[in-house]
Specification:
Layout: E1 2-7, E2 13-16, H1 35-53, H2 57-71, H3 77-80, E3 89-94, H4 99-134, H5 143-166, E4 172-177, E5 185-186, E6 192-193, H6 204-237, H7 246-266, H8 272-295, H9 301-307, H10 309-325, H11 337-354, H12 362-397
Parallel strand pairs: 1-3, 3-4
Antiparallel strand pairs: 1-2, 5-6
């Protein structure tokens, strides 16, 4: 396996290996495993085949989301995961650096990567079973649960491979090359190139692009969406927390709803995933809170239906729209002012209710009635806008 120490400038450098390179030193594939491991592997291969061959519906949306999640990972992972199956490493480095100096840089790089992926392995291994257990009712493949499980396995393979190289079980041979003293250049089209690896640098431009945008790009997408995930976590926790702390959860949910959209626009991190996740988190939180209060006999079923009318209509309309026109239909209708007022009214009423305000006062009743009326109006408005949009869509297809 060939690895190159490439210079970006006088101070910056990185290790690079092209995954398209044919590794003649790669070990022959061992015999297929048997028992539980063999069964799990066969099940994974069947799922992977069906997943990658899907061309419509939920599976297609899940595959695109999966590819998007992959685009957020660090590009050197494709090199690190290959260490587990390689028999030797040919490390080509600038001639201006001695083999001993490069060996120290290499060992420091491996140590940092090993520690990082051990931490990632631990966190993903803890999250995966919880995500799989809590989100199993989701239609189609449980993308979030599968992703964390997949990442846990991926980090485990990297930890094993990097550990083998660090312990010397995979010998590393150092080769000095004068051509590598030159930094990476840009060609006439702006693509990254290096003459020392011509013919073996198919991914070099993509590698550098993903590396340079990685942290900032990840922050722009993760920070706003993490607030939506926070609301989902608050929703799942609400039925189990003491009554005295439920008001705090409603406040936290309201603040996260207030800031996630603003952060997304400020950081220029708007994405299809976020556009779907944000309203989903809102409706999940409101729905679980309302059902919990009905089960606790704080609200009646009629109050539940009126307060949650808008959310029930949106949920039914979204399911019908996805069945008829696919997941892209969820992005076609922007949020309305009535919808935002309905969410604010629901959260305001639930906050007063969970904070223990006297339920029989006329002011409290007035706030409840106002929240119900806005919810119903927002639901009817949604039906009208959705019907118009679907008619326009069907007319266009004709």
């Amino acid at each position: 396996m060939k690895v190159y120490l490439l210079l970006v400038n006088d101070k910056q450098f990185f290790f690079y290996s092209d995954e398209s390179e044919i590794d003649e030193s790669r070990e022959e594939d061992p015999a297929p495993p048997t028992g539980l491991r063999g069964w799990l592997q066969s099940r994974w291969h069947r799922f992977e085949k069906a997943f990658h061959e899907a061309d419509a519906g939920v599976a297609l949306w899940a595959r695109r989301s999966w590819d998007w999640l992959h685009s957020l990972t660090h590009p050197d992972e494709t090199m690190l995961v290959r260490f587990r199956a390689t028999r030797r490493i040919e490390l080509h480095h600038p001639a201006s650096r001695t083999a001993d100096a490069v060996a120290r840089i290499w060992q420091d790089y491996l140590a940092r990567k090993w520690r990082r992926h051990v931490v990632c392995l631990s966190s993903n291994a803890l999250i995966a079973p919880l995500a799989l257990a809590l989100l199993w009712p989701l239609p189609g493949p449980n993308l979030i649960g599968y992703w964390f499980a997949y990442r846990a396995i991926h980090h485990w393979l990297i930890v094993r491979g990097v550990g083998k190289v660090r312990k010397g079980r995979v010998p590393t041979h150092y080769h000095a090359e004068a051509a590598l003293d030159m930094p990476v250049q840009r060609d006439g089209e702006g693509k990254a190139r290096h003459r020392a690896i011509e013919g073996q640098g198919h991914r070099l431009d993509d590698y550098l692009t993903r590396t340079s945008r990685g942290a900032a790009h990840l922050v722009r997408l993760v920070v706003p969406n993490s607030l939506s995930f926070l609301r989902i976590g608050l929703a799942l926790a609400f039925p189990w927390v003491p009554t005295s702390t439920r008001g705090g959860l409603v406040i936290a949910a309201g603040l996260s709803d207030l800031f996630d959209g603003r952060l997304s626009r400020a950081l220029q991190g708007t994405s299809t995933f976020g556009q779907i996740l944000d309203p989903l988190a809102d409706k999940l939180f409101v729905g679980i809170v309302l059902f919990t209060l009905v089960l606790d006999r704080v609200l009646s079923p009629i109050e539940l239906l009126l307060l949650g009318f808008r959310d029930l209509v949106v949920l039914a309309g979204s399911i019908w729209s996805v069945v008829r026109h696919g997941w892209r239909s969820l992005r076609q209708m922007p949020p309305s002012l009535l919808g935002k007022l309905a969410t604010a009214g629901q959260l305001g009423f639930l906050l007063l209710l969970t904070l223990g305000h006297e339920y029989t006062t006329s002011l409290f009743r007035l706030i409840e009635v106002a929240a119900m009326v806005i919810s119903v109006l927002a639901g009817l408005d949604y039906l009208g806008r959705k019907s118009s949009l679907i008619n326009d869509h069907e007319t266009t297809q004709l």
